[in-house]
Amino acid sequence: MQTVKIKSIKKLDKSYDRYDLRIEKTHNFFANGILIHNTSLVSSKLLFNNKLSLSERVLKFIGFNIQDKEYKYIYSSRKVIKAAGKHTTDLQGFYKDNIWGLAHEKIKHALVDGLSLYCEIVGNMPTGGMIQKDYDYGCREGEFKVFVYRITTTNTSGDVHEFDWASIKEHCDNHEINHVPEYYYGPVNFTLDQLKEKYLEKDCEFCSNRVPGEGIAFRNECHNKKAYKLKSFRFLQKESKDLDDGVSDIETEESDDIQDV
């Protein structure tokens, strides 16, 4: 992994476009000790304040029922909002496709007021190229899949409620969308070494190509619902080799809610 130092920080006018932080060639970087990569989507239907005209504000002040709040669709990568209602930002940048918008359209029928779906996007870009080099996840050329791994709901006061795993699966099944595959659900009665022995260092069972399985993720349902990622050594070796070879893909962002162990 290369080390890149920040040369300078400049304050830009607000009219300038914002871009995701990315490193030339690899498009990955470390932030607070976490490797930043993976293509992910947050797809939501949240409550927005409507911008009222002067006359509407006056009518509201004197007691007329003027709608000043409205639920609107919003989607983002893990770090950057791509579209909120009718407002959009730079949707492509380094990428050929607005993959987040396309994925959002696939799953937005599963959104109700206040709901947010946190997802992984895998497979291929519609106009060519793979989301993650060599990892097709069973997708045909130009096809991608969306897998939900977390769901939250936000009430009108702004309080966020986290779905448990059983509720996530139920919601996905009811709306015919994919959730991430489940290997085990129940009390923890094994060690980290036993987890590695059982699940790691195998070929990826979801890919047509023969590639190392990335690893597994697990979360504590009883405490803070934090998720932890356990990567296979073979995958890390491949990832390092790709980086050394200057191979780039469109995986650019790592979740604040997933921690490597």
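(the above was protein one; protein two follows)
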Amino acid sequence: MIPTTRDQSLLGIYLNDHLAGAVVGANLARRLAASEREWTRVDVLDRLATELGEDRAALHDMMADLEVPVRRAKNWVGWSAERAGRLKLNGRIFLRSPLSRVLELEAMRFGVEGTAAAWRTLRIRAAADDRLDTDRLDSLIGRARAQVDELEELWLDAAAEVFGGHPG
């Protein structure tokens, strides 16, 4: 099936929105890993930061395969939003708050769930568009599920450290 101009336009909007979100997520993941060098789970944060950067690149590659132009303005807005998110009130003015880890892990999880939705959407599209690699999409969907599970574990640990109690 050949996509219509309308389909291609909607796909372009959708994928550019997800690319902007992926830019935010990759930047947040790198910053969180760099800020949490003393945390016992920093190895997982480092790996997730790498994977989220790879996921952003994979989406960019698929957009090129689909001939969807990248809208740089949306990426800039996403980049700016991530920077502005650093200014949130978290109980401390100059030092990093333990609450920051909890909130940033929540934001990363939301981002990964959004990326997983984009992979599933592209997987649906792949049934009618042979420019998409279904095996690659299946792999990315599986990785996103694993990332969500890992972020849940990290979040539980961080929340238990900040608010008391035991994770799980």
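Reviewer note on protein two: DSSP finds five helices and no strands in the chain.
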